Amino acid sequence: MTQRSDAEQRRAEALDYHAHPQPGKIATAITKPTETARDLALAYSPGVAEPVRAIAADPDAAWQYTARGNLVAVISDGSAILGLGDLGPLASKPVMEGKGVLFKRFADIDVVDLEVEAENPQAFIDTVRRLEPSFGGINLEDICAPRCFEIEAALSDVMDIPVFHDDQHGTAIIIAAGLTNALRLQGKRLDEAKLVLVGAGAAGTATLNLLLDMGLKRENLLVVDRVGVLHEGLDDLPEHHRRFAAATEARTLAEALVGADAFVGLSAPNLLSEEMLASMADKPVVFALANPDPEILPELAHQVRDDLIMATGRSDYPNQVNNVLAFPFIFRGALDCRARRITANMKIACVEALAALAREAVPESVLKAYDLDAMAFGPEYILPKPFDPRLIERLPAAVAKAAEADGVARTPYRPHAMPEAGSQ
């Protein structure tokens, strides 16, 4: 009998997980009694006519009488599936279902996943905008750049519910929170730090925009993409790159990194060499977020620099940059004040709440979940853990408060009653 390799074993386990005991990862649940003829008469005809009349008279009544207020659509065209590329909408369905699992597990938000076959961005936009009456929010997922920018901007303009492309903004929020704390530990400030970012795609562009909103100085920023450093001498840059073109003589990543305080990589494996890392400023911060293989392995990076703080996108190293720390709680806060959109200040509020939470004492329940005796704010703990119960307490409230301040909340914030642990 031939023994399976580790890769074959992981593949078999993943396929078995998705296939049994029933295909897929999400299903519909009934929330009202359906045991008697009276129950069914209330659920459907004739009882259902009453909420229909109420909603026709007052559209806001839909939040009271239907599931809309706790329902998010997770929508993709499959053009940028994880690290696998453009494999089409059908192949994206397991990822969209997985997103639904995370929404439900961490924020008790119900999800319908929708995989859209669209011949161009406008067709996708037209399809999604017609869905507004069904949902309280739209989470866009796995849509390639620059298509994703056009789609999100257009939908945000025409829809009166939050539209959020998590690959952009979820990633940006976690990077910004981690970077805030890493710089703090290194005795540095965002508004003074020299930062180099590699990979100005969807996530990279959103990260840069958010960091600039938070105080990063444009003159302290260099961006590197396939053409090298984005500089003012390049006259054929796409729109989403043009605003980051710098007045600089640097043309390569190696030249850009000399004296830099922070490196953010959203690019490809092994791009950050030992020599480049050695050339950075004292007490550097390195976020090597290419997955599954980072721009530099932590083992090698720590051999080169003993004054380093480092993060990756992987769960088997400290300081994982994981979007699940943001998107469920952003939407929970937005839904709980019936926000019309997600603003820059709502994202910043989420960043600040995340960063502050990591600086607090870690609850015993978190230590138990990760089988650890101790965990404290420091070089290997700059972000909260996903199973921290305080995330659902702190982040939605902070997001909703910002929504109210920005005038995009329909109602005052009312915290969602989360189910008891283990009941989902």
From TrEMBL:
Keyword line: Oxidoreductase
SMART domains according to UniProt: malic, Malic_M
Domain Malic enzyme N-terminal: 23-156
UniProt KW Oxidoreductase keyword: yes
Entry keyword tRNA processing: no
Family: Belongs to the malic enzymes family.
Name of the protein in its database record: Malic enzyme-like NAD(P)-binding protein
Organism of provenance: Guyparkeria halophila
